[in-house]
Every structure is written in structure tokens, then in C-alpha cells.
């Protein structure tokens, strides 16, 4: 369907976010320090505005209008043609919350919205809002679309990533009960696709209940019962995290310096340190990595540090396909799994919250980067908020461990 043109771009007048709970019986939907980030691309430049949503409880409807300083000072303008707003909702305290609906209105009366299906997590993906007027103008065409009689139930369809850029924007057809595929050229599949000349991105959908011929099973693309986090997933790449909340000072997360260790990796050394009032707990302070081409990178430790350092060597001809970690504010245990399921580590002591990343290890993928923050806490720089990116062996340097000589160095300090 063609995108409808209408009123010119206008500044934000109000936002409304409904934190109604999902149908998950065990979910505790209250959260703290929740923020909404709106963004827009001007050519290759991305500009953002952030609005505090406070500490919403289950079922609370949070409203902010032009009298809120952050809205009145936001210079971004949006329209329902080719300038749709993108948004992300997240808890800076990393508390999980429930979402039902978001609506944004502009000063000249344009409305944008997004509906969530049983969302329960600490942050959404970066998603474009849908124009109410454009969909209303296409209501007659949408009503005449045929719905499939079987497939993935509408309530089980989730957005797990965004493909940018794209010439189309697609959404589920709320008149249908099932979705059979996500193909742009497929007909009567339970989707509505509209032309998009803007920098919006095409949502990628998965089915929570099971896999179908034309739509992925969510277990195959994201961890089970963990709808969109800060994941960046393409056919060749899978990015998971962050893990570790980082410390809070008076209820506010302590910011840190971002770092990226680039692989694939031939060797990873892990430095631990005592932590806590009586130093009875051990946490992971930093890492030193050696890539297949010999490049050394250190973060949260020194290159030639040997005290409390464990060296994990990837066997010749193998590559890292999974991560085992345990974490709270900081990482307390960290290890890796190769494509032959050889265990490297783990280093440190496990706590109650531990994960395998990804949940179902794919030996065909290689760990190509480790990202995180270096936080200066009580006079010591410690790494936290780790993210892991996996790729197929023929993508972005992913591949077998071919060894190599040591090359350039990058240090994150210690």
C-alpha cells in the first residue's frame, strides 16, 4: 500500500504510555527509573530526545504533555508521511516492566501509536511508531484483505528486531486471527505492509508458540520468554545482552566507558577480584582477548597482569559458539563453549542468576565481539553490562581458529 501524505512535520505535544500487565501470572510489572527515548534520522545523523516516565506500577497510565520540560525542549518534528518517530522504552535500573500501548501526538494533531503483545522486559527494541491517519486512510483496503485460517496465533506474534533501512514498514493485520508468513510479496498472510521512503526499518517477527514455514520460532532467534531486549539480529548476526546491571548510586545507574573487544578469539584471559564488605565474593574485573589474527585488547586489567588471571585458550580448529555467565550488578562468573561443546572455564563463582548465551548454542556461529561498560566503582574500574555478538563463520571475520601472530594492541586500562 502506498504511504499517505498529509500534514507537515510538527513538534511533540504529548505522550501516553500504558503499563498494563501481560497475561503472565508470575510477572511483577512494577518498575523504576523508566525512560522513553524518541529519535529521528536527518540524513546520516540520528537525533534523540528522552522523557522520564518515573516509577510506573502495574496498570498505570503515564502521561506527559508540552508542559513537561523535556517535551517542550525537544526539537524533533514528526509527520505521518516519511518522518515517523522511532522510540525505545527502558528502565535505567534494569527492572522489568509490562507494556500495553504507547501513543504520541504532535502539536498539529497527528497521532502515532504502537501496541504490545504481553511485553515483559527491562527495555524494548528501537521501533518506529505507526501513523494512525495513514492506517485509517487505508482501512478500506485493509478490510478487503483475506485472512489465513491457520498459522501462528496473533497473540503469539512478537517483534524481535528491526531491519534498517527498508522500503517497507509492516504490521500485523488486527482483523486476522493468524499469521502465516512475513514475506513482503506474500498475499493474505495476516500482515499489512506499506511503502516507506523514510529511515524506519522493517520489523522482524517471530512466533512464540511454534515455528511455521513462513515465520521463525522465537526460540530460534531470541531466548525463550525474553522478548526484545537490546538485540541486533540479522540472518548472519545475533547480538545478546546486556548482562549485569552495573552499580546504582542513590537509585541512579553509574555510567561508564563503553568498550568493544573484537574477535573471533583465539584466547581470552579473565581477571577476578574480591568484592563486598568482607571481600567474601569474587567478581570478574576485566578481560584480555587475543583474536585469531593476533591482536591483543585489554579492558579492566593490564596486558601483562597475572594476579588472579585465568587464561582460556580456544583449541586449534575450534571457535567460541556460546557463553556461560552468572551476574548481578557485576559479572561474577564467566566462561565459554566452543563449537564442539568444549568448556572453557567458567571462571568465578556462580550465583542464583545464571544464563547460557545463546540459550540454544549454535555451533555454526562464532563469537565475534564482546561489548560492555567499564565502571569506576569505589576507586576500581570494573566491567559490566556485557553484550555478545555471534556471526556465521563467513560473516564479518567469523571462522575457524587459524591462530596468527600478535598484532596491534588496545587497552581499556585497569
Short account of what is shown:
With 414 residues, the protein is mainly β. The protein is built from four helices and 32 strands.
Detailed description of the structure:
The chain is mainly beta and 414 residues long. The chain folds into three domains: 9-129, Sandwich (Lipoxygenase-1), CATH 2.60.60; 138-233, no CATH class; 239-411, Jacalin-like lectin domain (Vitelline Membrane Outer Layer Protein I, subunit A). The protein contains four helices and 32 strands. It has helices at residues 69-72, 132-137, 139-143, 218-221; strands at 10-18, 34-42, 45-54, 61-65, 77-78, 86-91, 97-106, 111-121, 127-128, 130-131, 152-153, 157-163, 168-172, 178-179, 191-195, 202-207, 216-217, 237-243, 248-249, 252-253, 257-262, 265-275, 281-291, 296-299, 309-313, 320-327, 331-338, 343-348, 354-357, 366-377, 380-391, 409-411. The strands form nine sheets. Strands 1, 4, 5, 7, 8 and 10 form a six-stranded antiparallel β-sheet that branches. Strands 25-22-23-24-32 form a five-stranded mixed β-sheet, with no helix packed on it. The longest helix has 6 residues, at 132-137. It is globular, with a radius of gyration of 23 Å. Mean pLDDT is 77; it is low at 223-235 and 395-414.
Query: What would you call the shape?
Result: globular
Strand content: over 45%
Helix segment count?
4
First-last Cα distance: 55 Å
Low-confidence stretches: 223-235, 395-414
Specify the helix fraction band: under 10%
CATH architecture classification of the largest domain: Aligned Prism
In the CATH hierarchy, the third-tier topology of the largest domain is known as: Vitelline Membrane Outer Layer Protein I, subunit A
Number of strands: 32
Using only CA atoms, what is the Rg?
23 Å
Structural class: mainly beta
In total, how many domains does the architecture comprise?
A: 3
Mean pLDDT across the residues is: 77
Q: Major sheet: size, sense and barrel closure?
A: 6 strands, antiparallel
| CATH superfamily grouping of the largest domain | Jacalin-like lectin domain
| CATH domain class name of the largest domain | Mainly Beta
Amino acid at each position: 500500500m502506498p504511504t499517505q501524505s498529509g500534514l507537515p512535520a510538527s513538534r511533540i505535544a504529548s505522550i501516553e504510555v500504558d503499563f498494563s500487565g501481560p497475561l503472565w501470572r508470575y510477572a511483577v510489572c512494577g518498575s523504576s527509573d523508566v525512560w522513553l527515548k524518541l529519535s529521528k534520522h536527518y540524513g546520516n545523523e540520528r537525533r534523540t530526545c528522552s522523557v522520564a516516565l518515573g516509577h510506573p506500577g502495574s496498570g498505570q497510565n503515564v502521561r506527559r504533555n508540552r508542559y513537561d520540560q523535556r517535551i517542550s525542549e525537544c526539537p524533533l518534528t514528526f509527520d505521518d508521511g516519511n518522518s515517523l518517530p522511532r522510540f525505545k522504552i527502558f528502565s535505567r535500573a534494569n527492572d522489568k516492566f509490562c507494556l500495553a500501548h504507547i501513543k504520541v501526538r504532535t502539536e498539529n494533531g497527528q497521532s502515532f501509536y504502537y501496541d504490545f503483545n504481553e511485553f515483559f522486559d527491562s527495555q524494548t527494541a528501537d521501533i518506529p511508531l505507526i501513523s494512525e491517519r495513514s492506517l485509517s486512510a487505508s482501512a478500506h483496503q485493509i478490510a478487503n484483505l483475506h485472512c489465513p485460517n491457520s498459522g501462528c496465533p496473533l497473540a503469539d506474534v512478537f517483534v524481535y528486531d528491526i531491519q534498517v533501512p527498508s522500503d517497507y514498514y509492516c504490521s500485523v493485520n488486527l482483523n486476522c486471527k493468524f499469521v502465516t508468513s512475513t514475506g513482503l510479496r506474500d498475499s493474505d498472510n495476516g500482515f499489512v505492509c506499506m511503502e516507506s521512503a523514510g529511515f524506519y526499518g522493517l520489523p522482524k517477527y517471530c512466533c512464540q508458540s511454534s515455528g511455521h514455514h513462513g515465520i521463525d520460532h522465537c526460540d530460534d532467534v531470541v531466548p525463550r520468554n525474553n522478548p526484545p531486549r537490546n538485540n541486533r539480529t540479522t540472518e548472519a548476526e545475533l547480538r545478546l545482552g546486556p548482562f549485569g546491571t552495573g552499580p546504582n548510586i542513590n537509585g541512579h545507574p553509574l555510567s561508564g566507558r563503553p568498550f568493544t573487544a573484537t574477535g573471533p578469539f583465539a584466547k581470552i584471559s579473565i581477571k577476578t577480584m574480591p568484592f563486598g564488605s568482607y571481600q567474601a565474593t569474587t567478581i570478574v574485573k576485566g578481560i584480555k582477548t587475543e583474536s585469531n589474527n593476533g591482536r591483543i585488547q585489554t579492558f579492566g586489567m593490564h596486558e601483562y597482569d597475572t594476579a588472579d588471571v585465568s587464561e582460556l585458550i580456544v583449541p586449534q580448529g575450534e571457535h567460541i559458539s556460546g557463553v556461560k555467565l552468572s551476574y548481578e550488578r557485576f559479572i561474577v562468573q564467566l566462561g565459554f563453549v566452543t563449537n564442539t561443546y568444549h568448556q572453557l572455564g567458567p571462571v568465578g563463582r556462580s550465583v542464583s542468576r545464571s544464563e547460557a548465551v545463546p540459550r540454544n548454542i549454535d555451533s555454526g556461529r562464532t563469537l565475534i565481539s564482546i561489548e560492555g561498560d567499564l565502571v569506576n566503582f569505589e576507586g576500581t574500574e570494573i566491567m559490566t553490562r556485557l553484550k555478545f555478538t555471534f556471526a556465521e563463520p563467513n560473516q564479518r571475520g567469523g571462522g575457524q581458529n587459524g591462530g596468527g601472530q600478535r598484532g596491534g594492541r588496545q587497552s581499556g586500562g585497569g
